Amino acid sequence: MSIYKEAYGQNPELTSSAPGRVEVIGNHVDYNGGLVIGAAIDRRVRLELGTNNAGLLRLVSGQDTKPVELPLGEGALVPLQGPDRWANYLLGVIKKLSEYGLPLDTGINLAVSSELPSGAGLSSSAALEMATAVAFNEWAHLGMDTKALVKAARWAENEFVGVPCGILDQGVVGFGRADSLVAIDCRKEEFQSVPLPADTCLWIFNSEKKHSLIDSFYADRHAECQKALSLLQRSLPEVSHLALVTAAQLEDLKESLPEPLARRARHVVEEQGRVQRFMEDLENGEGWETTGSLLTASHASSRDLFENSIDELDYLVEALAACPGVFGARLTGGGFGGAVLAVTSPSFAEPEGRAIAHSYQRRFGHSPQVIRLTPDQGARIDSI
Ligand code: GLA
Description:
- It is a single chain.
- With 384 residues, the protein is of the alpha+beta class.
- The protein contains eleven helices and twelve strands.
- It has helices at residues 3-8, 88-98, 124-139, 146-161, 168-175, 214-233, 247-252, 261-284, 288-306, 311-321, 350-364; strands at residues 14-25, 35-52, 56-61, 68-71, 107-114, 180-185, 190-195, 201-210, 326-332, 337-344, 369-373, 380-383.
- A hairpin with a 4-residue loop joins β9 and β10 (337-344).
- The longest helix is centred in the last third of the chain and has 24 residues, at 261-284.
- It is globular.
- The chain binds alpha-D-galactopyranose.
- Alpha-D-galactopyranose binds next to α5.
């Protein structure tokens, strides 16, 4: 029985779903205004939506969370604290969509279920936000396009949940296509599908480690990038975003940045160069032998310059990079825990994945979660 039917004793009026995402390349480049590339994946968050006559907003989830029940209406939508905080991803989107005409005078029942491992850096939060956005857009006939829904979902994460993320997660989750990557120009907020070359396999090795200070580390890196930009703007007033600074400009101005800001800026600027080369390689049909090494170079930069890796991820990247059939590997997402993405040929299969998992287990005492992924469609309505 569906979670909705079990909780509310009837069928939902509509169901939506949204995928998780992997960041393929472009680490911490999105909120710095650069180009980033990701893929929506074939693990989804599902949302069931219906109404109630009690004028309440009710939420249940298949995870181990308490049901949440709130009065609806303008003033009632404020961020929750404590164990109910998971509901903020949905509440933030509902609040934003109310500005686009979503009525708040009908009681709403919602049920959430997820195939995404949480804490793996696969953006279960953006999936939840986008599943909510497409569902209410359809239900209330708001007529918002995908870009407007992506921006509403990012608003929820930035302003309601309070994480200063860029547009990568919601953008990839919104614009994902089967067998394709999503390239995002984060400054212009332009989204483009890029076919994934045939015979390319994507794997996730989830360390299942998550730093307890993950959100504050992310916010610290965000603030360091802002600070580096404002120092560079004293000499480059025309440059609006850190990712738009060229390598030559940064070299000329390196004395103007104290550490660790100089390392952070170098990571962002060089990572942007790698993303551009990656994109050109894909467009020119360059083989993965060359292109894949950009991923491993990206990881080294995150580890040494941006300092958002952990031993477990470094170990996985090193073991994977030495394995035949692996074109490249890197941490994916915010860092400070989470998962490594490996891009491989079909010759890398279950036995090879298991061998890496065993060597990891011998070193760290627990097994990583190993998942083979396929790029999948973005957020969508599944049934009405
Ligand atoms: C997290 C954020 C994204 C992006 C990545 C790092 O996934 O949500 O906006 O900044 O980290 O590239």
